[in-house]
Amino acid sequence: MKVLAVASEAYPLVKTGGLADVVGALPAALAPHGVQTTTLLPGFPAVLKATSGPAIHSWRDLLGGGVARLLSGEIAGHPLLVLDAPGFFARDGGLYGDQSGEDWSDNWRRFAALSRAAAEIARGGVKKLRFDVLHAHDWQAALAPAYLRYAAAPIKTVLTIHNIAFQGRFGPEIFSELGLPDDAWSIDGVEYYGGVGYLKAGLRAADAITTVSPTYAREILQPDYGMGLEGLIADRVARVSGIVNGIDPAVWRPDHDPALVSRYTSKTLARRAANKRAVEREFDLAPGEGPIFTVISRLTWQKGMDVLADCVDDLVTMGGRLALLGSGDADLEQAFTAARERHPGKVGVRIGYNEPLSHLLQGGANAILIPSRFEPCGLTQLYGLAYGCVPVVARTGGLADTIIDANIAALGAQVASGIQFDGVTRDSLVHALTRTCALYADQPTWRAMQRCGMKADFSWGKSGAAYAALYRGLIGE
């Protein structure tokens, strides 16, 4: 079976978040199940380095962006297609915004072009390329199923929602530029509250819809989580399923990780101490034996970072320390920077993102804080489990699906792997921090929780099989 996966980013070529990790890992996860995945990415400068040979197809003027070429290459040993459209993707700045952090004003055109190219490839418009299923990821690729729908193409389509809060909503004036038929401008098409909704269009057109955890698939049926799309999700609920994300054990493996000062296994947890000392040095934390809490996250309201910022003083009072790596809202960046100034040696903050440093934090910190108000799946808690960095999480989405709370029954059965709490409020988070510090003080219990998490299997094996079964079910229809 041949699948064309379409996304705006994929590890290890380009990454801004968990989407890239998932798109990068799926080809290897699907291969054992008889699925060959070809990934189509935008021609960002870093992606073009992975291509070779002449163009295999070209467009004279792709959605007003000028000449575009289709190049081929490899990503982690799997087939790669790259949309080389310099007018859209050859620019300084980020994938989605300029150097000041503002979204590119033509994002609607850039990712419509990616979707349009994907649809043409999927329907057989490029010689020698044939696919059975098109799999689009998030709003940046969500118009691809819509283009195929209005072209009456027989290929089956899947759309995965990684975060329904990001929808790709634009004004009505762009509709005439998208190359869609007039009847696509309807509530059954791309029209969404008087404008154009990319994710909405894909949700209406796709043959199957997946989210990245079973709990999130249920949550987005509710107004608090559906972000205005809960009615459409409910209408298509028979086509919705949740498949939890996996992690790549070749990348996240504490006994072979080059980013760690000291490598270890669940049987040699004492070796983590050297990594803890390295975290202290990196974040200017005073040496100590109390717990180090880490945050590796976007600093946003969704992630509950405003509540955590209000609890930092409590965390320090309990004897904990904080090592934070992330960036996001300016007010939150300032709040954590101010906390560092209030508590020198107790709070360390690194604004930005650094992949090797994120590995060191998982391998050296004692607990990872994830107080998200909603979390479709989450990957950092899975990395924490693999590295014996005990997750402290809000009971929502994929966090609820992957962490077993250290309640009395779970501790007694020796299956607890983390700490869960309900409701992202100051009181609930302080209570969770208090529980965590108490558990950490009981080192035999804490080590048992670490080993339980490290024993859990969150590799892509089961998830890859679930996606392969989904594809085959669609083709069987």
TrEMBL record:
Identify its protein family.
Belongs to the glycosyltransferase 1 family. Bacterial/plant glycogen synthase subfamily.
Under the heading CDD domains, the entry gives:
GT5_Glycogen_synthase_DULL1-like
Q: Which UniProt keywords apply?
A: Glycogen biosynthesis, Glycosyltransferase, Transferase
Q: Which InterPro entries does the entry link to?
A: Glyco_trans_1, GS/SS, Starch_synth_cat_dom
- This protein is called what? Glycogen synthase
**Where on this chain does ADP-alpha-D-glucose bind?**
15
Q: Tell me the PANTHER family matching this sequence.
A: ALPHA AMYLASE DOMAIN-CONTAINING PROTEIN (PTHR45825:SF11), GRANULE-BOUND STARCH SYNTHASE 1, CHLOROPLASTIC/AMYLOPLASTIC (PTHR45825)
Q: In which pathway does it act?
A: Glycan biosynthesis; glycogen biosynthesis
Enzyme Commission number: 2.4.1.21
Q: Which organism encodes this protein? A: Sphingomonas dokdonensis
- Locate the Starch synthase catalytic domain: which residues? 2-234
Q: Which GO terms describe its molecular function?
A: alpha-1,4-glucan glucosyltransferase (ADP-glucose donor) activity; alpha-1,4-glucan glucosyltransferase (UDP-glucose donor) activity
Any idea what job this protein has?
Synthesizes alpha-1,4-glucan chains using ADP-glucose.
| Gene Ontology CC | cytosol
- Top-rank taxon: Bacteria
Pfam families the record matches:
Glyco_transf_5, Glycos_transf_1
